[in-house]
Design goal:
Shape: globular
Distance between the termini: 40 Å
Number of strands: 11
Largest sheet: 7 strands, mixed
Order of helices and strands: EEEEEEEEEEE
Strand content: over 45%
């Protein structure tokens, strides 16, 4: 089993930055990749970014490309999401997810483990 725990959320003004963390524990050696998703009230869960452990490659949704950066702490299986130039439309509950087989941009596919989420609120 793998456990995920997010941290780093909070409130910030538009244009500001936040860095989210997703700490892991358990049988992390089996993981292929991790991803961040977000869900705003009344909206469907949206894929934000993914990180692949085998080659450290990354992928981003168009809405966050060039503003957000996903990365890993080399010493441990912790994945970060650095969020810069935040906009009010980035306001959402952010959750990390882990997959043994590959990351999809559909939250219903391939993910084996989820964290509880951390709230990000961006005011204008």
């Amino acid at each position: 089993q793998v456990q995920l725990m997010e941290s780093g959320g909070g409130s910030v003004q538009a244009g500001g930055s936040l860095k989210l963390s997703c700490a892991t524990s358990g049988e992390t050696y089996r993981l292929n990749c991790m991803a961040w998703f977000r869900q705003a009230p009344g909206k469907e869960r949206e894929w934000v970014a993914a990180y692949y452990f085998v080659d450290r490659s990354t992928a981003y949704a168009d809405s966050v490309k060039d503003r957000f950066t996903i990365s890993q702490d080399r010493g441990k299986v912790t994945v970060y999401l650095q969020m810069n130039r935040l906009k009010p439309e980035d306001t959402a509950m952010y959750s990390c997810a882990a997959s043994y087989v590959g990351c999809s941009n559909d939250y219903r596919l391939r993910y084996n483990h989820w964290g509880q989420g951390t709230q990000v609120t961006v005011s204008s």
